[in-house]
Amino acid sequence: MMEEFYLAKRHKNFKQHLWNLVKEQPESLVLNKATKESKELYSLHRQVSGDYQRTRAFSRLNISEYGILYAKIEPEHRIEDLIAKWFFSRFPLFTIILSSKKGTFVISKDFFKHSSLSLEEELKQISKSKEIDPLLNDLTDFNTLSWENIYDSNFIKERKNKKYFQKNIPKKYLYKESLLLERKKFLKTKPLTDFINE
Amino acid sequence: MVNLKMNTLQKVKVLADASKFDSCASSASNRKTTTSDRIGNAASCGICHSFTEDGRCISLYKTLYSNICSHDCKYCQNASGCNKKPATFTPEELAKTFMSLYVRNYVEGLFLSSGITKDSDTTTENMISAIKLIRTKYKFQGYIHFKVLPGTSYELIKQASEFSDRMSVNLEAPNKSRMSEISSVKDFKIDILRRQAWLKKMNTPAGQTTQLVVGGSDETDLEILKMIDWEYKNINLKRGYYSAFTPVEDTPFQNKSKQPLQREHRLYNVDFMLRKYNIKLNEFKDILKGDMLPNIDPKISLARNYFDGPIDINSADWNDLIRIPGIGPTNAYRILELQKSTKITKKHLHNMGVVLKRATPFLKIDGYHQRTLGAYT
After folding, report:
1. Residue B131 CB burial class (10 angstroms; 0-12, 13-18, ≥19)
2. Each residue's pLDDT tens digit, A74-84
3. pLDDT reported for residue B371
4. Rounded to a whole number, what is the distance in Å from the CA of B277 to chain A's nearest CA?
5. Residues lower than pLDDT 70 in chain B
6. A69 to chain B: which residues are within 8 Å by CB?
7. B17 touches chain A (CB under 8 A)
8. H or E stretch including A15?
9. Using alpha carbons only, what angle is made at residue A152 by residues A147 and A158, rounded to the nearest 5 degrees?
10. Of B176, B19, B9, whose CA–CA distance to A155 is shortest?
11. How far apart, in whole angstroms, are the C-alpha atoms of residue A101 and residue B88?
12. Are B143 and B27 in contact (CB under 8 A)?
C-alpha cells in the first residue's frame, strides 16, 4: 500500500516517523487518505509529483551537435535522477546532461552517472569521444524568437485573465522579463480602484 | 540565406497567430513506442509547457499549414476576402521548425490545421508530406493532432491517420441550418458528418475530437448539447471543445456581439457530466431556461432536481454519490471503498478532499443533516 506514496521519500522535508506511522494504519483508511497522517504523507507525495511535472515541462534543453542534450534544472526536491531518466526515455538516441545544485547527472545508452564536475566540463569531456550527429546537427540552427512568436501568438487578448495566468505558471519559470515585471506589479499592494478598473 | 531564415520566422508568427482560436488542450495518447531508435514519446497524462496570459496551457505547437482559404466562414480571420498577410509553409520548413522546438522541450507535440488553399485534397497532401517528414526523417514518435479539412477524400484521410495520434473535423455549428448561417460553402452532412464517420473507422490512438463556435450562429445551448450528445453516442467522439465567439476585425461578423466566456464554461460543465458521469441529456433539459443553461453550476441545479432528501453517506451508491456537488469520480470511488470497512465520518470526507461546503446540504452524515439556507430553494 505504501507504493501510493513512493515520491514522498524524495521530499526535502520527508520524515521517516510519519512514514512508519502510516504504515501501521488500516489499509482501507490509508488508501483512501482518510486519516490525518495519510493525508499529510499524500500531500508530500503530491508536492514532489508536482515538482517533477513542472521540471519536466518547463526545463528547456540545449543542443550540442555531438548528440547531446543538456540543461540546468532547478527542482525543489530530490528528483534530478528521475528527470534525467525521463528525458532519456524521450530521447534515447542522445546523451542527456542535467546539472543542478546537487551536481551533474549524465545518462546515455551505456551509463548513468552522478558527477561533481560542472555542466560545461562534462559537456566538453563527453563531446571529445563523440562524432557529429546528423539529426541534431540539422536542428542546431534555431532562433529563440520562433518560440517567443508562438508564445505571443497563442494569446487571445479578449480572454486575458491575469489571475488564472498567475495561478498556473510557476514564478521561477517566467522566462519573459515583461511578464515577470507584470507579475511583480500585480503582487504589490494596489489601491482598490486599480483592480476595479482592470 | 538570411532572407530565407527571416521568412520562416515570419511564417511561424503569422501561422501560429492564425490558429489561435483552435482549441486543443490534450496531448495524451495511447501510442505505444517500442523501439529505441526514435525521438519523442507521448506521455499518457499530457504535459503543459507554458501558459499564455489568458491562463490557457501551451502544450502543442499549434499552427496552420497555410492561412490562405477559399471558404467564406463569416467568423473566421482566415476566410477568403479577409485582410491578412498570406503565408504558407513548405513541408520541410514546418518539419524543421517543429522538431527544433520539440527537442528543446518547448512543446509536447504538433497540432496541424490549415486554410483550404486550392482545394481540400491538395492542401491535405501537403500537410501529409510535412507529418510524413517528421515521422520518417526526424524519427518522431510523439503526439500529432491532424485537422481534417472539410471535403477531404477518404484515401487521404486514411493516409493521414497512419501518422497521427488524434484527428478531428470541426463542427463549428450544431446543425445544417445553423451552418448555412455562417458558411455558404460547407455542406454540414457531407463535408463534416461523413468525414467524422470515416474517422470513426480509422481508430487513431487518441481518437477524434471536434470544436464548436459558441454563439457564432445564434444557436441555443440545447442545440449544441443535442449535437454533442449525438456525437458521443454515434461517432465515438473523445471530447468536444467549445470556443465562445469573439468578433474579429475585417470579418463579416466583426460587429456581432461577443459571447460571455461563462457560457462556454457552463457547456464544458455539462459536457463533462455527459462524458464522465453518464448522465442522460434529458435530465439537463429540466434545468434549462429558454433552451439556455443558467449561470449556475449545472451539477447543483441537477442535484436540487434529483434528490428528494439528504443521502446517507454510508449507504449511497455510485449513481447518487456522483451527483452530489463537491464529490467527483475519484472521491465517489474512495467513499464506496471505505463503506466496506468503516463508518464514514465528516472528518474522513474532509481528509479525502470532498468540498464539504457544497456537499453537506445533500448528505446525511452520522444521522445528522446540515441544512443550508437556499440549498433546496
Report:
1. buried
2. 999 999 999 99
3. 66
4. 21
5. 1-6, 32-35, 370-377
6. 103
7. yes
8. none
9. 155
10. B19
11. 45
12. yes
In this structure, which amino acid lies at residue B76? C
On whether the CB atoms of residues B56 and A159 are closer than 8 A, the answer is: yes
pLDDT tens digits along B303-342:
999 998 899 999 999 999 999 999 999 999 999 999 998 8
User: CA–CA separation, B302 vs B265, rounded Å?
Assistant: 16
Cell 483552435: give the residue.
B22
Which residue in A87, A107, A91 sits closest to B37, CA to CA? A91
**Nearest chain A alpha carbon to B61:** A150
Q: Which of B194, B236, B240 lies closest to B214 in space, CA to CA? A: B240
Q: Where are the beta strands (DSSP E) in chain B?
A: 50-51, 57-58, 60-64, 109-113, 143-147, 166-168, 208-214, 237-244, 311-312, 363-364
- Reported pTM: 0.89
**What CA–CA distance (Å, rounded) separates A100 from A118?**
9
Is A153 within 8 Å of B55 when comparing Cβ atoms? Answer: no
> Which of A15, A151, A139, A162 lies closest to A69 in space, CA to CA?
A139
| B59 CA: distance to closest CA in chain A (Å) | 9
Q: How far apart are the first and last CA of chain A?
A: 50
Q: In which element (H, E) is residue A194 found? A: helix A192-197
Mutate which: A35, A150, A162, A176, vs B, most B CBs within 10 A: A150
CA R_g for chain A: 21
